Amino acid sequence: MSDPGDSLPIRTVPTRPFQDQRPGTSGLRKKVRLFQQPHYLENFVQAVFDTVGPVQGRTLVLGGDGRYHNDVAVQVILRMAAANGFARVLVGRDGLLSTPAVSCLIRRRKAFGGIVLSASHNPGGPEGDFGIKYNVANGGPAPEAVTEAIYRRSREIRSYRILEAPDLPLGEPGVHRLGETTVEVVDPVDDYAALMEELFDLDAIRALFAGGRFRMVYDAMHAVTGPYAHRILEGRLGAPPGTVLHGRPLPDFGGGHPDPNLTYARELVARLWGEEAPDLGAASDGDGDRNMILGPRFFVTPSDSLAVLAANATLVPGYARGLSGVARSMPTSRAVDRVAAALGIPCYETPTGWKFFGNLLDAGRVTLCGEESFGTGSDHLREKDGLWAVLFWLNVLAVRRQGVAEIVREHWARYGRHYYSRHDYEGLDRERAEALMEALRKRLPALRGERLGGREVELADDFAYTDPVDGSHTEGQGIRILLEDGARIVYRLSGTGTEGATLRVYLERYEPDPARHGLEPREALAELAALADAVAGIRERTGRERPDVVT
Ligand code: G1P
Ligand code: ZN
């Protein structure tokens, strides 16, 4: 045990509030250079501790996705946690922990809460983004009442507390003292791997890989899941070395954009569309909570993935007893709703963002949940979980001994296909984007009962949600227009961007007839895309001819 001494001086540093520390969909995200301003990180961390406290005698979990500034921020937060009286801090080796691993550690070690340093799938490096998010004792993101209280506190803060101490060595697991606080450097993978062992039939997956008949490629995108994937896929499951691509976490993600989609996971996509494609392709984002699933020349939309996992859950040991219910964010396609109806279990529709699943999971109302934005998860944690979703698919593949595309096509044949696509218009002028949404909101009453593309508008509203567990109410969560044939258009502004505004347009069309399941989503949704533009005047109001990213 190294010991910098118990009597390190605690400094109370005077500061002035920053006006822009309101957490968004997933914590506070800003450009790295904003976080590098003197006192910026410290103010926010003190606001968190003041809001969630008293923290004396408690345990905090701390780690991040390894992006630029992670190393600096971890040391600052350790000194502040000690000065604020935490009894213990569990920090990942080298300051690394995936978002699901933080959630896992909070729950397994019964910690008071945790801090995740990440801007998820946003680019890193000195010119990129940084972020900080607080998770509560159930392992999930702080609910909105807490994040709003943190924001209020950040606007009145006058000082913060920090210990004067040298940096702690975080390169090896071990225990250190920092003033009165015990800092335990933990292996980032151990607890998480133990949990996966409890949920999945890893021996069956190992048998799938044995003999080299089944092959996969997992793209860690130079982000945090590299060490997890090496250990679990290539170690425990015996997949050959080279299964994990871009497995070394880098502060700038190797210059890439650590977002697992068809645009950014370029090399992975090339392999799956190339000669001798592997049987499964998968990728995770910066902090390891997102996932993308591919078969040879086949993309599984995240909405379909959720539905397929729900329909096959009882094949997996951790879910063999069945599902209590499922939940999806509002813009996510309604494919999972059909599975829930067939199983006779409830399906909840929540606003965008994982924090809205927490109460439903805690209350045991849902077992699986997911978002169209490559997020899937279950009651094993209170975050979405990228590698977990990949293991879930592997377990299903090991039991069914069918290909990815075959499983999905059979699913469509049974439940019908939800053609789905999201169009993102990035870096828009914020005022213009807000004006577009405002104009849409004003049109809602007139839209109801109108006909669009020959179909009646069944519903047109601005999505609001009342949490069935604690009664909390949230408004303004996205405009949805539902047509009588089940087609749907949703518009909302992103709550995670750091520059200007991002308009997201979500298109969905239901096709029950298997004879018509072979279209490209672009074709299948072309008419709806044109309607979406006509209703909102996207081209006219934004000056953009087409979306920047289509997923
Ligand atoms: C985006 C996704 C949302 C997800 C969030 C955090 O938020 O759309 O589903 O929960 O990232 O990963 P948005 O930028 O749309 O507010
Ligand atoms: Zn993420």
Question: Which structural traits does this protein have?
Answer:
globular, 25% strand, 3 domains, TATA-Binding Protein, binds 1-O-phosphono-alpha-D-glucopyranose, 551 residues, 7-stranded antiparallel sheet, Alpha-D-Glucose-1,6-Bisphosphate, Chain A, domain 3, alpha/beta
Summarize the SSE layout with pairings.
Layout: E1 10-14, E2 28-31, H1 32-35, H2 40-52, E3 59-64, H3 70-83, E4 88-96, H4 99-108, E5 113-117, E6 129-135, H5 144-154, E7 159-163, E8 174-178, E9 181-186, H6 190-199, H7 202-209, E10 216-219, H8 226-236, E11 244-245, H9 266-272, E12 280-284, E13 291-295, E14 298-300, H10 302-312, E15 326-329, H11 335-343, E16 347-350, H12 358-362, E17 368-371, E18 375-378, H13 386-400, H14 404-415, E19 417-428, H15 430-447, E20 451-452, E21 455-462, E22 465-466, E23 473-474, E24 479-483, E25 488-493, E26 501-511, H16 521-524, H17 526-536, H18 538-542, E27 549-550
Parallel strand pairs: 3-4, 3-5, 4-9, 10-11, 10-12, 15-16, 15-17
Antiparallel strand pairs: 1-7, 2-6, 5-6, 8-9, 12-13, 13-14, 17-18, 19-26, 19-27, 20-21, 21-24, 22-23, 24-25, 25-26
Helix pairs in contact: 2-3, 2-5, 7-13, 10-11
The chain binds 1-O-phosphono-alpha-D-glucopyranose and zinc ion.
